[in-house]
Write a structure and sequence with these properties.
Length: 263
């Protein structure tokens, strides 16, 4: 970095990094790793020197898709499933994530919400929908009498995501990643056994309905895994497009009406 960089220059540079998607500071001072490599001599190895013990990471499974299917099928409870997913090494996103994000809310709830993937706040805290979009989601749910902290299944919601690890820079999950984790999501829904699914955005629609186009699909009941499913625009989209909140409100009322029709 240019040592003549002044305060304003440094601020502009930082803002540019943020614009590019850098959200995590990994050190207080920059490290020139090229200089480091040149300065650090390689340790001489003699025959008598024992190799240092390097912790060996669990190898990725040879057939991650088959492994995901088998692990998901063998989970008999949500706790089993969380443990199986946490230990699954077939998805590279795990290596870059700080936390495994499984679910939040009440598993006995009548409504289960499926989001996309953890963002920076969720990755830091280890729970889904806790950032700005999550706070908006909580307000939307409160408007129809639902609350993730409620113990009464009639008033509660259960929340998960298609992916349990954050994609770098919050990029959109890839089709390959969605397909790999799909057996876990299906088993998650089976075990929680909600009456209604709410699919927040294109990623859960792609995973569970096999199609995208949320702006066309939202607001119309469809079926996913044999359950009524309501596609809705993602709260993050609503934060960027406040005018779309009006339609989201109509979708929330649809959900409320369906819950009231089958108490
Ligand atoms: N967006 C999602 O889809 N899920 C989260 O958990 C957070 C943001």
């Amino acid at each position: 970095m240019d040592s003549a960089l002044d305060w304003h220059g440094a601020k502009a540079l930082l803002e540019w990094y943020v614009e590019l998607g850098a959200v995590d500071a990994v050190g207080d001072v920059p490290i020139d790793r090229y200089a480091l490599a040149a300065e650090t001599p390689k340790p001489a190895r003699t025959r008598a020197t024992a190799a240092p013990e390097v912790p060996v990471a669990d190898p990725a499974p040879a057939d991650p898709a088959a492994e995901a299917e088998a692990l998901a099928a063998s989970a008999q409870t949500l706790e089993d499933l969380a443990q199986a997913m946490r230990g699954f090494d077939g998805l590279d996103l795990k290596k870059g994530a700080r936390n495994f994000v499984f679910a939040d809310g009440n598993p006995a709830a009548r409504v289960m919400i499926v989001g996309e993937a953890p963002g920076a706040d969720e990755d830091r805290i280890g729970r889904p929908f806790v950032g700005r979009a999550g706070q908006l989601l909580d307000r939307m749910l409160a408007a129809i009498g639902l609350d993730r902290t409620a113990t009464d299944p009639d008033e509660a919601v259960y929340i998960t995501n298609v992916l349990p690890w954050r994609p770098p820079g919050n990029r959109t999950p890839e089709a390959r990643e969605i397909a790999l984790m799909l057996p876990f999501l299906k088993r998650h829904i089976e075990l929680a056994d909600p009456e209604i699914l709410v699919l927040m955005g294109n990623v859960p629609c792609s995973a569970l309905l096999g199609r995208t186009g949320i702006l066309r699909m939202r607001g119309r009941w469809t079926e996913a895994l044999g359950r009524p499913a309501m596609p809705m625009t993602h709260p993050a989209y609503l934060l960027r497009n406040p005018a779309a909140k009006r339609e989201a409100w109509a979708d929330l009322l649809e959900i409320r009406a369906r819950l009231d029709a089958a108490p």
